[in-house]
């Protein structure tokens, strides 16, 4: 990840270990994806248990980088307060 945002200069790493909790968010995202994939492939599509297992393994590999970044973004939005952008009143435009 970048140290700062290119547009607003927001510092992503707030303190050492700030994103430690994002690991739990990533775990929850991964579990939800695996459960959803397993239910769809095994119960709805009727695939074998072995095929479903290998599908989950492939899904884990493909979505690992997406989950890493998404979990950090979710963690940042939960625990970081940013300045809200105030919309101008109708007469100020």
Largest sheet report: none
Structural class by secondary-structure content: mainly alpha
Mean pLDDT: 84
Low-confidence runs of at least 5 consecutive residues = none
Q: Compute the separation of the termini in Å.
A: 37 Å
Run of helices and strands: HH
Number of helices: 2
C-alpha Rg, in Å? 19 Å
Q: How many beta-strand runs? A: 0
- The percent range for helix content is 55-70%
* Percent of residues in β-strands: under 5%
| 3D shape | elongated
Report on this structure.
- The longest helix is centred in the last third of the chain and has 31 residues.
- The protein has two helices and no strands.
- The chain has a domain of 62 residues.
- The mean pLDDT is 84.
- Helix 1 runs antiparallel to helix 2.
- It is mainly alpha-helical.
In short:
The protein has 93 residues and is mostly helical. The protein is built from two helices and no strands.
How are the SSEs ordered, and which strands pair?
Layout: H1 22-44, H2 49-79
Search tags:
single chain; 93 residues; mainly alpha; elongated
